[in-house]
Amino acid sequence: MIWMALMIAAAEPSPEALALGREMAEAGMLATLLPILEVDSTEKLVAEFPELSDAEKQKFREVAHRTYLEGRDRLLEADGRAYAEQLSLEDLRALVAFSRTDAAKHYRDAMPKIAASTMASAGPMDFKKDVVAAYCKETGKLCPVK
Question: Whose CA is closest to 136, among 145, 44, 74?
Fold first, then answer.
């Protein structure tokens, strides 16, 4: 029983590792893309409720933004913990040092544009539809009824 408690205690990241992990999360891909997802998701939600007045839509967007911030914080906290659990303290220190450089900042600033360009170049994608179509082609099953 004591052995198990020692193993669990040893697995808990140090406060420094957690802080560095959170900093990595704040500088990572998830943090970079979440604002794009917020805007896209919010506008899709607003479009689902055409009966709302302009003032109500604005209020809806404000509520959506507050909800997003709460969810973002939970996600980044979990992401930071995952960094701290999966990477050594030495690696975290090196990664955080890099994330503070101008090159890393330029990279983060460019990521939303890179992601948008990639999606535009790749064209529309529907994973579910594509998988079912490929399965149909290979097996003759789950094919759309004509």
Answer: 145
pTM comes to 0.73
What contacts 60, CB < 8 A, 6 or more positions away?
A: 45, 46, 49, 52
Mean pLDDT by 10 residues, the chain (146 residues): 57 95 95 91 96 97 97 97 97 98 94 88 92 96 90
In a 3-state reduction of DSSP, which class is residue 48? coil
Per-residue confidence (pLDDT) for residue 10, from 0 to 100: 56
**Angle CA 118–37–17, to nearest 5:** 95
- Kindly report each contact of residues 124-129 with a partner whose C-beta sits within 8 Å and lies 24 or more positions away, as own/partner: none
At residue 67, the pLDDT reads 97
Q: How many Cα neighbours within 13 Å face the side chain of 112? A: 13
CA distance 102 to 105: 5
Q: Around 10, how many Cα atoms within 13 Å sit in the side-chain half-sphere? A: 6
Q: Is 140 helix (H, G, I), strand (E, B) or coil?
A: coil
* Ramachandran sector of residue 125 (left: φ over 0; alpha: ψ -120 to 50; beta: rest): beta
> What per-residue confidence (pLDDT) applies to 80?
98
